[in-house]
Amino acid sequence: VDLIANRLDNFLIGIMSHDYQGGLSITGNAITGITGTFLGQANSSTGQYGIRIDTDHTLACHIKDNRIRHFWVGISLRHQAVGSLIAGNRISRSAVITQDKFPGTVAEMRSYLDTRLYAIEVEAAYCEVRGNQIDLLSAAWGGIRVSGEHVTIDGNILGAIAQANQLTVPAAIYCQADAEKGLSADHAVVRDNSLLGPQFGIVVSRISGPAVSGNHLDGSGGGGWYGVRVDDCTDSRIENNDLREVFFAVHLSDGERNRVADNSIDQAGTGITCTQEADLQISGNTLQSCVVLGMALFVRGAVALLENRVLNCGQFPLLSAGIVV
Hints:
The protein is built from 1 helix and 39 strands. The protein is mainly β and 325 residues long. The strands form 4 sheets. Strands 3, 8, 11, 14, 17, 20, 21, 24, 27, 30, 33, 36 and 39 form a 13-stranded mixed beta sheet that branches. Strands 1-4-9-12-15-18-22-25-28-31-34-37 form a 12-stranded parallel beta sheet, with no helix packed on it. It has a 12-stranded parallel beta sheet with strand order 2-5-10-13-16-19-23-26-29-32-35-38, with no helix packed on it. The longest helix is centred in the middle third of the chain and has 9 residues, at 106-114.
């Protein structure tokens, strides 16, 4: 079935596939959800799904070049949409103010990320999410969430704007394990994406073998929380990323055999930090103008620091340090 160049206005759900068997192409459509009161604010996005693929049959979809507005979730692929492509879509939702508290612990961080509403959600394995543009105008929203294995997230642009009187920021890219559904984004590839403005950053959580490389993150005035956050992962590769104006450029915790290499970090609060990591290797990174410190590494096993360059870091008067181990 081909759905091409249709216009759908003011729907709770734009396009839904349920128990269809066969190929499905959704291309060049303009899909607009309903608006109403959300979080106590009028004229907000209140559509549920722009495109929802929910079937018990293996179904590879091509979802390309659609314009999707005013849905809590723009595109949702359930676990049987194996091998699907999501490319070139533009997804936007309204600006609303939330009352969330700052997530201070790992459990609170996971809960915060789990409760955002994501423009693109992928439970299926072996999918590609490529070249999409996502507007993140509220901390209620997230960009891309993946829980299927071997998913590639490539060349997407996620843009956020700081809001007055808003303490929290939108989630950006989140690759996770979903224990309730028995899913895990193992071997996720997150590469060549641009995250512009204050966002939570790229988070890989409780998975094995993720690769985060070639991404550009600019917190625009220091409003970004993380550049890359690695939470309880094994065998991750964090390489060749350009991270600037975020508070924690790279932070790892409770993982094993992770590698952080050849990243460029500029004007961050802290450069590379970790807690309870084992067999960690940090090599070839350039860190400059980090306000608090360059590196702080609290490990429970072996760690190797090789050929890193740290300059002009540690400008905070109460705690100024290049590398702390």
